Amino acid sequence: MKKCHRWQRILILSLLSFSVFAPIVLVSRRLKTLTSFGGKEFAEDLPSVNYMRDVLRLNSIEQEAAEGLKGPKLVVLDDKDISSVVRRSSYEDRDSDQFGNAQDDSKLLEANETNGNGKDEHQIQQTIIQMNSREKTIDGYSDGLPLTYLLQEQFNQEIGRDDQRLQSPPFKVVDEKVKQMRDQLITAKAYLSFEPPGSNSRLMKELRARIRELERVVGEVSRDSDLPMSASQKMRSMELSLAKASRVFPDCSAMATKLRAMTYNAEEQVQVMRNQESHLLQLAGRTTPKGFHCLSMRLTAKYFLLRPEERQFPNQQNLNDPDLYHYAVLSDNVLAASVVVNSTISSAKEPEKIVFHVVTDSLNLPAISMWFLLNPPGKATIHVQSIENFDWLSTKYNSTLNEQKSYDPRYSSALNHLRFYLPDIFPALNKIVLFDHDVVVQRDLTEIWSIDMKGKVNGAVETCLESEASFRSIRMFMNFSDPFLARRFNANVCTWAFGMNLFNLHEWRRKNLTMLYRNYLQLGLKRSLWKGGSLPIGWITFYNQTVALEKRWHTLGLGYNSDVPRGDIENAAVIHYDGVMKPWLETGIAKYKGYWSKHLLYDHPYLQQCNIHE
């Protein structure tokens, strides 16, 4: 019995001795392998080995202090493993797709788990990594780089590729996939149209199911801007179903006919939507924002609380001085007129020489007058008057202004046609610059007053270059099939624009062009000679009476063209929001609104009260 207990004690002591000495032997063998692995380069660097022994001791101390923590598992490979990894990584670089190689990464993780476990191996692996980094800094300049350096370079390349993938999401791939799915949907629907009435075959059911699946995927992409994981599988399923359908319906000519019909229907739908969009934009262009109504009402109420002497503007003695610079704007919009006046005066070198004439209707006269009384234009002179105050207009010309036949009030408005009566509105002036109320002045306009008019009446920027978005052909607006127009006017004449025009009122009176306009207007009411608006009748009234101004004076298109060159806008003396997308409307082109809005004081109490914001 005693002998049995003795053998048991011997066996237990043997096992304890083995458990103590086995790790030591394993460590020594691995260190021996490492020494041979480094070769001559490692042997020559004896100080680094001594250094690494110290590091090993430090690491073992740190390991004991952090027994409860789990560190990352690192890989220790021999020569064969290293060469195989390098070869495999080169194949992966060549064959990897856009989203990486998840399978190979999982294999590498498995290798981590099978290359050794335990605290001792974790210690040694940390030490080896530090030794390798030291080898890289010392011996990296030599021709034969250590294999650990190759592994480190390979690791850096993998990390770099992953970073690049994270930084550049594959939006282009998503768009391409969505396009392919939509093409598949069109083809599938075309095959469905070949189905005989009352048919309920398995293929047709399958196609309908595939169409629902793909439409759901396309909807998810449109909503989330991300491609679902199941998208590729759905596309492959649809592809298989389409292949079956192509075998059932091999007639290519029937398919082509059906696709052409579908294309034609789609184009018709697009055209209907475009017409609807155009109609809504035109409708929006005729409306006035709610805040503008509020502002007009508040200003009008304030105006009628003033005494008659408080309604007078200063410097009214300058109104008929021909030596000053006279500008006019015809408007029923308080803020639009304000921007024209403010931008002109703020851009002027001599604002004290400017006289601004604002002409409006009786409904908006109190509001516009009150606005400029509250916000006087500095040293410049301002004069606001109503069209109803022109008694001579109804007696001398029988007031045919309201006889214009147009559903658009912008064309039939008396203010729109009042521009043809400027010599009568300003009888004491010889020259005047007329602005539309949708312009912004960006440069001093003093130079324009010295332009040689060559005995003509109108100075304007031409719009007859077909390469420009502002191109207007007289044929587009005039009915040259009428013999009256065909005999008197050249259908190829160069056109010009309203918006900023320099008028020689002295020559206008001498040539009696207002009466000529009246005759044309009466004739146009009886016959269909031109489209609505004042521009066509302006072209024939000032036919051979217009001198071309340089393009820099007037840049058009900010109310309909989103591609006006920025350089043209910045260099222009006057920019024009012609078109229906005015800068004060929500439909205005956003990137152009800043040129207009910077001339308004949005912190004004009335603008704040009426919720008018930039």
UniProtKB/TrEMBL annotation:
It is a single-pass type II membrane protein. GO terms for molecular function: polygalacturonate 4-alpha-galacturonosyltransferase activity. One of its GO terms (cellular component) is Golgi membrane. Keywords: Cell wall biogenesis/degradation, Glycoprotein, Glycosyltransferase, Golgi apparatus, Membrane, Signal-anchor, Transferase, Transmembrane, Transmembrane helix. CDD domains: GT8_like_1 (cd06429). Its main location: Golgi. It is found in: Golgi apparatus membrane. The keyword Membrane applies. Pathway: Glycan metabolism; pectin biosynthesis. It is an enzyme of class 2 (transferase). Residues 93-123 are annotated as: Disordered. InterPro entries: GAUT, Glyco_trans_8, Nucleotide-diphossugar_trans. Its EC number is 2.4.1.-. GO terms for biological process: cell wall organization; pectin biosynthetic process. Coiled coil: none annotated. Belongs to the glycosyltransferase 8 family. PANTHER family: GALACTURONOSYLTRANSFERASE 4-RELATED, GALACTURONOSYLTRANSFERASE 6-RELATED. This is Hexosyltransferase. It comes from Gossypium australe.
